[in-house]
């Protein structure tokens, strides 16, 4: 497994991006504590029985004990997931981020209900398990996240087709929909690292990458609601009625 990119080259200056990474003052406070940031989403949780979960638990411990831990806020292992389709965030109400068939001023609860009604009758037709490989780390810009890729072109096609069908059903098409990068978030940056910290964190992550399995599987997608980035509450699994689950 390789690092996805040269993180140092991609690191923005604080002056260009603001004093803090984008997760601060929206999803997190400057001290790393979580802020309210409600919404809904369709995800696959990483099962606690997965080989990747066990390996990430060791990685989590290393990041927690690192001298660099002041730079980021770690997400609870129970929240680890891969997003299948992004859903909405209550604080982001713009065309492309909110369903086209619902007013921009509609309460989040109304959006939750609309999505639940549509998804309860949706045939996912794309049956699990979903087979993914670890393709490196996402650039260290706003967080620490594994970049994921389907293991085959056929797996890529069926996951992309599922995303397209969900977009049509929910009347929601995020910018960059076609180029969406599957990932698994581990932490949010709460301050920009300096050059020395950037190099040290990149080196640590590259070292820890070798302890992760090359491939893993995920189960059925779940329609979830969330109040913040620490917990994603499953409402129900997306079903394939003709296949019995």
Automatic annotation (TrEMBL):
Matches recorded under Gene3D superfamilies: Cyclic phosphodiesterase
Domain DUF1868 per the UniProt entry, residue ranges: 27-139
Pfam families per record: 2H-phosphodiest (PF08975)
Superkingdom of the source species: Bacteria
Record region (Disordered): 1-22
Skewed-composition ranges (Basic and acidic residues): 1-11
Coiled-coil intervals: none
Name by which UniProt lists this protein: DUF1868 domain-containing protein
Protein species of origin: Rhizobium leguminosarum
